[in-house]
Amino acid sequence: MPNGFEQHTLTNGLTIIAEPDGAAHSAAVGFFVKTGARDEPTPLMGVSHFLEHMMFKGTDSMSAADINSIYDDMGARNNAYTSHEMTCFYASVVADRLPEAIDHTAKMMRPALRESDFDTERGVILEEIAMYADNPFWVLYESACERHHGSNPLGHRVLGTPATIQSLTRDSMAAYFDANYAADTSVVALAGRVDFDEACKQIESLCGSWPKSKTPRNRQQSTPQPSRLDIVDDRFDRGYLLMLDRAPSAQDDTRYAANLLAQIFGAQDNSRLHWALIEQGLAEEAQAAFDPGDGTGEFFAYASGDAGQLADIEQSIRNEAIRLADSLREDDLERVRSRFATAFTVSAERPADGMQRIGRRWTTLGEYRSLSEELERIRAVTVSDIRGVLERFPLTSGTIATLRPPAEA
User: Fold this and answer.
1) Largest separation between any pair of C-alpha atoms in the chain
2) If I label 126, which of 33, 156, 190, 322 is the partner at 20 to 30 A Cα–Cα?
3) Position 397 confidence tier, pLDDT thresholds 50, 70, 90
4) For residue 90, with 0-12 CB atoms within 10 Å meaning exposed, 13-18 middle and 19 or more buried, which class applies?
5) Residue 404 predicted with pLDDT over 90
6) Backbone angles phi, psi at 15, to 5 degrees
7) How many Å apart are CA 222 and CA 60, to the nearest integer?
8) 115-132 helix and 170-180 helix, angle to the nearest 10 degrees
9) Is 382's pLDDT higher than 80?
């Protein structure tokens, strides 16, 4: 189990954090950058994700093959991801290989951005966009977000669109990198068997020359109004429905109640939506989720089934949302608290999980909270707290989107 928390900030603003565990056999490092789809100018939509790919194409002294083979040689489990909120590059290794993982990942964070690599990778990105275009959930979710947030960048697609990727240039990507991949927008998170003082010295030697940022995040929020979006697509033969609404932000302490609310309402089993839609044969899948972001948050409910029954599916979701406040009982909370307790306990034993948890939180909020403190916050949530969230965010006042085949339009 973790032995506490360590934090150090370099003179250029780069923050290093760690949750050491002297008994662990492995260690993990993650470089988190506070830039994602919401930080992109609309004409450059998708540049953060495209740039994530380019980081693996090599530096001035390493090729793409070098980057991959060095990770392979140290036996690392490494990858990266981009979201609306951040981009992360990470590696997990046996503990004595951690200095190698830090060294290699830090060097990878200053890519060459070669024009030839850029042109090749553009095709890879376009293929990825095409792949997601065949997934009904992503078609519906991305379209709903665009409608929900309007012209605000919160509605940007993480992968971008074929048009924005086709028009993107290597030089505009390089300018975006210079403005956003900076010391004070970056967090290095460590977990597992870590010598924190030595890690700080190593990271300072590798990253101490990184510049500070030029463009702080624009945190202007969207003002979504209730709206409806109906998509007809002949590639699909089923019906899909998504309801998207406002929710507490990552800075809002009611997010703990919102998290339990989403589990009670739409966990994949033994939730209100499961029993009302799946067990009744009305839908094939049904779920709800809560996503807290920097200054903003989202609830969504999603279901799929026979396209001719979408109206009944929608009404059933509405009915369950309306009934939820009055039907809440203490045993509902106790059941989901137990789920969180199990998940937190398992996560505490995995340095890779701990690195992600502390890295994401610090990148968004600039603060640390231990798993035990998080669990106490969850345990402190009351039925009244969840009802209070439902009063502020009623789950049925946002954007409703449907996707169906032409025969059912």
Assistant:
1) 65
2) 33
3) confident
4) buried
5) yes
6) -100, 135
7) 40
8) 90
9) yes
Q: Which residues contact 251 (CB under 8 A, 6 or more apart)?
A: 294, 295, 365
Looking at residues 78-107, what average pLDDT do you find?
98
> Could you tell me the two tokens for 88?
């992360």
The structure tokens listed for 66 are: 């070098």
3-state secondary structure of 107: helix
- Cβ atoms of 281 and 274 closer than 8 Å: no
Q: 234 with 138: CB under 8 angstroms?
A: no
Does residue 52 contact residue 158 with C-beta atoms inside 8 Å? Answer: no
Whether the Cβ atoms of residue 27 and residue 41 lie closer than 8 Å to each other: no
Amino acid at 20: P
pTM over 0.70: yes
291's CB contacts (< 8 A; 6+ apart) are 247, 297, 298, 299, 300
**Which of 189, 167, 171 has the alpha carbon at shortest distance from 179?**
171
Between the CA atoms of 34, 38, 40 and 46, what dihedral angle is there, to the nearest 10 degrees? 100
Cα 280 from Cα 234, distance rounded (Å) = 28
Is residue 386 pLDDT above 90, yes or no?
yes
Nearest to 200 by CA among 356, 395, 7: 7
Residue 228, phi then psi, degrees to nearest 5: -135, 140
